Amino acid sequence: MIGRGVAVTTLVMALVPPVLAGGQYEVQDAALVERGACEFELWHVDVRKGGHGTWLAPTCGLAGQQQISVTAGQEHEGGERNAVAGVEWMLVPRSVDEHDLGYGLRLGAEYREESGRVAEFHALFPVSLRLSHAGVMVHGNLGFSHDRDARRRSAMTWGVAGDFPVGFNTTLVAEMSGNSRSGEHPLLQVGPSMALVDGHVVVDLTYGRVLGGDRDEHWAVGFSLAF
After folding, report:
1. Residue 13 above 50 pLDDT?
2. Can you tell me the distance from the alpha carbon of 6 to that of 126, in angstroms, rounded to the nearest whole number?
3. Residue 60 domain-assigned (yes or no)
């Protein structure tokens, strides 16, 4: 599965909060890219009866149980284009890759061409629990976001997710996420994640739907290369 992230784009602010490394998934896991290794992610989101966007993000593991990610992307909606960029730092004192229970801290910021400034800052606490040796895992997130472009600038964020291996190097991913801003509804995403070339290449296909309001829908495809 492509590394989890708290968001994809400002293209669909009601769908997805800030742009960060982690591909099309919102919910973060408590795991790191290994020290000295890197992961390159590329993903595309197409909103039904709306816009679309494409993003790329390299993530590299650092010493001291840390990693750094940089994200850049282009959003297109209503004939207009908007560039976005994000940077994210993560610390994981206890990784779910090495223990049954993992936890960490993520800090990030987002720049938006549309507003010409660093418009969003956030902090997130991910927790991951391995339920079986078969690879079933659940993840929980609780965080805080300050968006200078939103009507209500500050909000709590949350997310829950599960990873369920189904065979043939494929994992079914399901998650729900949201925030406390008035008028915004939870986002549900689900889809298969397929590991290829001994796990060095991962392909994710995702369907997403807002649970309320206009019930906006989107499709996403992502690729991850580890080296």
Report:
1. no
2. 11
3. yes
pTM: 0.90
> In terms of Cα–Cα distance, which of 214, 187, 203, 136 is closest to 6?
187
Is there a domain that residue 63 lies in? yes
- d(C-alpha 202, C-alpha 63), whole Å: 25
Q: What is the domain count for the chain?
A: 1
Residue-number span of the structural domain to which 88 is assigned: 38-226
Answer for the pair 131, 158: CB distance below 8 angstroms, yes or no.
no
pLDDT at 49 over 60: yes
Residue with tokens 């994981």: 92
Q: What is the pLDDT of residues 111-124, one digit of tens each?
A: 999 899 999 999 99
Counts of helices then strands in the chain (DSSP H, E): 0, 12
Residue 182 sits in a domain of what CATH number? 2.40.160.40
Q: Residue 151 and residue 118: Cα distance in Å, rounded?
A: 16
**9 located within any domain:** no
- Asked if residue 137 lies in contact with residue 129, where contact means CB atoms within 8 angstroms, the answer is yes
Question: Over the chain, what is the mean pLDDT?
Answer: 89
Q: Lowest-confidence range among 8-17, 118-127, 131-140?
A: 8-17
Considering Cα of 114, then 82, then 211, then 139, what sign does the dihedral take?
Answer: negative
